[in-house]
User: Fold this.
Amino acid sequence: MSAPTTYSAASRFSLRREAAAAAAIAARDVTKLLRDPIRLVGGLVFPALFIGVLGGAFASNFESPGIDLLPFIFAGQLAQGVWQSSALGLVSILEDRENDFSQEIFVAPIGRRTILAGKILGESLVAFPQAFTVMAFGVILGIPLTLAQVFAIIPALILVAIFGAAFGALIVSVLPNQRSANLLFPFIFLPQFFLAGAFNPIRNLPWYLDIVSHIAPLRYAVDLIRGAYYGYPDPAVLADPTWTVVVISVATVVMLSIGTFLFVRSERNR
Assistant:
């Protein structure tokens, strides 16, 4: 009768060890951000300026029936910034590989899935200072933002951050080095900024662009944050947020499963 008890205690210890290891890896990513003033300032200032300059220019020169473009772009930039920051942060896995830091981690008695989970958690946390800066700058610009909207946006941002990190994990799992990632990521992200509607309404896209837009993961991240900001139904929101949450959740699970499998296999083959 003592064997099951011993096994259960060992399992609980192993789970605690893996959770502590993932937390330590996540904390390392947060510490790296705090020790990199250029990245920190750039990540905080650039999105705010983007809203002020691009949002102001669009709001002054373009009109969209039923939509105030400045808040529209604010919500889009909030989603795009968090999603992109989380996805790009996973490139640090390739940097660690090139510096052999990941090999040092593999010496420790923790699973490779734990390493990836820690990276995803860390980069999701790193994205949030940028989000809070964007919200603060939006208030300065006079964009309406109530406490109820903030409480609706924050859970949506958590899901968007994990979604972006899952997408980043899938991409970097098939790339050999950081140079390849730096060349590929702009081609992946830049078209999505416009096809996902981060800065522009996309209800009337040509049919062929509409198909690509529905494939773009960023579309669902942007629409979820707009759903949290505006409520539903609203001319600025493309779909019911409940449906969007389902799509994001399923896509996140699929991308994490494939990305984790490919990551573990590539590291085992090194």
Q: What stands out?
A: Residues 76 and 198 are 4 Å apart (CA to CA).
